[in-house]
Task: inverse folding
């Protein structure tokens, strides 16, 4: 699953290139940098992989989401529809934009249910932000159709799904912008990093400016001569982080191949367990295969199996319903509006009471789900042992 499992000489080489020049900054220093533009090279490669027209690399996936929302013109007073199963960064980014996160249901894709969006649309709804969770896709074409029909902006949180596709098209390219994370545990890592892809030259330009204090990057060698068309912030990535990521991105095909092979071995072995059903993946060929997710018939049985897997040495199997970071139920800081200072989104006159948000049908999907991380480093023996552990866990 995470790229850190396969660090090697390539990462060392690219980082060495940067250290030799001493230029850790992604912009300028043309003479000193000896031709090394790691962030820019990463962006070019990300465009090749996703076939997006533009890519911008920044400090984190969270920064990528915040930048994408800003660049798409989403801000104070707007409502953004998100899902209750994601990493907390999704709602943080909406709040950072001054916009209001509105929760809607997931379906058995573990992602936003296009059939339920209508229920939560108001005149303030500006955007829909589906999250392609655990390496695979939402019913993204249907979500896209809904957004088009209602004149809503679609931004995709594909932070966990680099390399995944739907109908041959990269996740992150269906909306106005798509976001990736390259943090320490993602499919490809920069240590810390994030990326935005878009087919819109205008959105790209705003991302490029917003993430670097509004710099238009047109001043030539003198950064001080740049103009500042918009107010931005600093979400830049360093060349060191970009260098690690560039080496990793070049290994994406290899990563996907191993993940798919390992996932297939486990999934095939579990196919005959009658009480198990698998997550619905709209386009199985496009699954990046970072996780194998399955459902048990009831919440009690799912909890029992999660425990039995652990007891049988089958590690890395999160039970998301009780997870602190990935499901609404345990987001007590949001529900209690615990924050260090007043947030701008509190100025909205119709802020939902998050402590009262109930999504029973989503609960009933997540509380029966168990995911299994698919690792790159598994040997054939590891996989055989794992399958044995799974079989033991289900006996009884
Ligand atoms: C990891 C992640 C993020 C945030 O990325 P960071 O790089 O850690 O800031 C956002 N959304 C989802 C779904 C993620 O998994």
Result:
């Amino acid at each position: 699953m995470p790229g850190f499992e396969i660090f090697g000489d390539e990462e060392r080489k690219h980082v060495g290139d940067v250290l030799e020049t001493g230029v850790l900054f992604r912009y300028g220093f043309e003479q000193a940098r000896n031709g090394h533009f790691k962030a820019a090279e990463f962006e070019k490669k990300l465009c090749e992989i996703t076939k997006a027209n533009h890519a911008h690399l920044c400090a984190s996936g969270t920064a990528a989401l915040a930048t994408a929302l800003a660049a798409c013109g989403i801000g104070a007073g707007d409502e953004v529809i998100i899902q209750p199963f994601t990493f907390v960064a999704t709602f943080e980014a909406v709040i950072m934009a001054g916009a209001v996160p509105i929760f809607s249901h997931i379906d058995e894709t573990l992602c936003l249910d296009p059939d339920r969006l209508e229920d939560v649309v108001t005149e303030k709804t500006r955007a829909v932000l589906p999250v392609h969770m655990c390496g695979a896709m939402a019913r993204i074409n249907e979500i896209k159709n809904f957004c088009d029909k209602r004149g809503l902006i679609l931004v995709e949180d594909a932070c966990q799904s680099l390399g995944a596709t739907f109908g041959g098209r990269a996740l992150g390219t269906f909306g106005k912008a798509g976001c990736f994370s390259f943090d320490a545990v993602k499919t490809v890592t920069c240590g810390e990093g994030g990326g935005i892809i878009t087919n819109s030259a205008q959105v790209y330009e705003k991302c490029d400016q917003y993430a670097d204090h509004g710099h238009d990057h047109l001043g030539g060698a003198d950064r001080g001569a740049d103009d500042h068309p918009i107010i931005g912030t600093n979400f830049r990535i360093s060349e060191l982080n970009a260098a690690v990521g560039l080496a990793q991105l070049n290994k994406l095909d290899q990563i996907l191949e191993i993940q798919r092979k390992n996932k297939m071995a486990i999934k095939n072995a579990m196919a005959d367990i009658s009480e198990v059903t698998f997550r619905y993946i709209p386009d199985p060929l496009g699954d990046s295969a970072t996780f194998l997710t399955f459902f048990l018939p009831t919440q009690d049985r799912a909890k029992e199996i999660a425990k039995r897997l652990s007891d049988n040495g089958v590690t890395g199997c999160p039970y998301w319903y009780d997870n602190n970071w990935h499901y609404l139920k345990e987001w007590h800081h949001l529900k209690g509006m615990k924050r260090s200072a007043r947030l701008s989104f509190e100025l909205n006159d119709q802020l939902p009471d998050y402590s009262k948000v109930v999504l029973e049908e989503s609960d009933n999907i997540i509380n029966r789900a168990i995911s299994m991380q698919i690792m790159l480093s598994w040997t054939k023996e590891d996989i055989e042992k794992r399958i044995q552990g799974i079989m033991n866990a289900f006996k009884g």
About this structure: The chain has a mean pLDDT of 97. The CA atoms of residues 109 and 396 lie 28 Å apart. The chain is about 35% helix and 10% strand. Residues 60-62, 86-87, 89-90, 131, 157, 159-160, 181, 183, 194 surround pyridoxal-5'-phosphate (CB under 6 Å).
